[in-house]
Design goal:
The protein has 419 residues and is an alpha/beta fold. It is built from 14 helices and 14 strands. The protein has two domains: 251 residues, Peroxisomal Thiolase, Chain A, domain 1 (3-Layer(aba) Sandwich), CATH 3.40.47.10; 150 residues, Thiolase/Chalcone synthase (Peroxisomal Thiolase, Chain A, domain 1).
Length: 419
């Protein structure tokens, strides 16, 4: 594998930092609300009903769509587009960037998604079923709503961004993939500011629920707030959730020029592929991805203070990821391991980006948020350093490691350093 230079030896115009973030999640519509929920055990999962599928549970967002969109534009566009616009606008506001005087031809929009277009297609088929499937009533908005670049394109339209925009289809590793793409484009000087992360509208398509249900992988529980329970012996599947998180990424040189607040620096990343199964993870390949990201960051497992796991609450998925994490971090005494899906469910393409945000504030407060709903830890998921049910104060946090994996064996990892 080609060697990467030590991050601190790179010139400032090759070092990439996070200067702003905007998010919507089932338990918070800002980083402050989200972090408070994670530290105080507030789940965002509730009872939910899906057309054709029926009653289930889901992670549902309640952000104000009209805060950054007209009613007309929201109706013409998509839920994923609205999620993305909200997150992008909030990220710019959080960053302190003078948007009115920004050259938007030098802004890139890189949005990770799991899938896009199913919601709109299902809804249109439902509508024409009322007219004996007469396609003349099919909406003329369908094609721009369903093209794969839609969420990024809606952001660009809303914010008059004339630089490059596109989505990165990387299954449930897409949130990390968006960040990685943003970093690479900044280093290549293809843009001067990147809006990067992931979005998901998954709860609005019955196909997602039906698909997981047919796999025996859809979570159920009489108390919706306890339905998502990664690592617990009685876990029984995934809770589908919507949400988004986008970051403003800048070169360190530009951030210094404007004296920007910096959340952290991206110092390592990796992506690889299992190439073994459509759904079942390969822990050997996952561990390789983790080690590759550590090598690129020029750190050892012992340097990492927090590992954010991808674990979704499925039987074998959690066990196999724990095998990979244990293989790399199992002997570390100062590494703490948590999971965010236990609070909000699985936000699919947004998962990696949202889950990073859940831990990012630990650079400031030195607290590791827990994985909740672990009443009876599965022995096969036991790892040294798991933080369960209650937050843990650990003092200084220097490195956060963010795992995010997806179907068809796509693996991703990102390493963030305190600045």
């Amino acid at each position: 594998m080609p060697s990467f230079p030590h991050p601190t030896e790179l010139p400032d115009d090759q070092r990439v930092v996070i200067t702003g973030l905007g998010l919507t999640s089932p338990n918070g519509n800002s980083i402050g609300e989200f972090r408070d929920s994670l530290l105080n055990g507030r789940s965002g999962i509730k009872d939910y009903e899906v057309r054709y599928f029926g009653k289930t549970v889901a992670g549902v967002c309640d952000f104000d769509v009209k805060r950054h969109q007209s009613r007309r534009d929201a109706r013409r566009g998509t839920r994923a587009g609205s999620v993305g616009i909200y997150c992008a606008r909030e990220a710019i506001a959080d960053s302190g960037i003078d948007w009115d005087n920004t050259d938007t031809s030098r802004v890139g929009v890189y949005i990770g998604i799991t899938e896009h277009g199913n919601v709109e297609t299902e809804s249109e088929i439902y509508e024409i079923s009322k007219f004996e499937y007469d396609t003349s009533v099919w909406t003329h908005h369908h094609n721009p709503r369903t093209v794969a670049n839609n969420p990024a394109g809606e952001i660009a339209l809303n914010m008059s961004i004339t630089g490059p925009h596109y989505t990165i289809g990387a299954a449930c590793a897409a949130g990390n993939a968006g960040l990685i793409q943003g970093l690479q484009m900044l280093r290549l000087k293809e843009c001067d500011l990147a809006l990067a992360g992931g979005v998901s509208e998954s709860i609005h398509t019955f196909g997602i629920f039906a698909g997981f249900n047919s796999q025996g992988a859809l979570a159920t529980h009489q108390d919706p707030t306890k339905a998502s329970r990664p690592f617990d012996l009685n876990r029984n599947g995934i809770v589908v959730a919507e949400g988004g998180c986008l970051y403003t990424l800048e070169r360190l040189s530009d951030a210094k020029t404007r004296s920007a607040k910096v959340y952290g620096e991206i110092v390592g990343y990796a992506m690889n592929t299992d190439a073994t199964d459509f759904v079942l993870p390969n822990p050997t390949r996952q561990a390789e991805c983790i080690r590759m990201a550590l090598d690129r960051a020029h750190i050892t497992p012992e340097n990492v203070n927090i590992v954010s796991t991808h674990a979704t609450g499925t039987g074998m998925g959690d066990i196999l990821e724990c095998e990979a994490v244990r293989d790399v971090f199992g002997e570390c005494n100062n590494t703490h391991i948590n999971n965010t899906k236990s609070f909000i469910g699985h936000t699919m393409g947004a998962a990696g980006a949202i889950e990073l945000a859940g831990n990012l504030m630990a650079f400031e407060d030195g607290v590791v948020h827990p994985s909740i709903n672990v009443d009876d830890l599965d022995p096969e998921c036991a790892i040294n350093g798991l933080v369960l049910n209650e937050p843990k104060e650990i003092g200084t946090v220097d490195y956060i490691f963010n795992n995010s994996f997806g179907m068809l064996g796509i693996n991703s990892a990102v390493v963030i350093k305190r600045t």
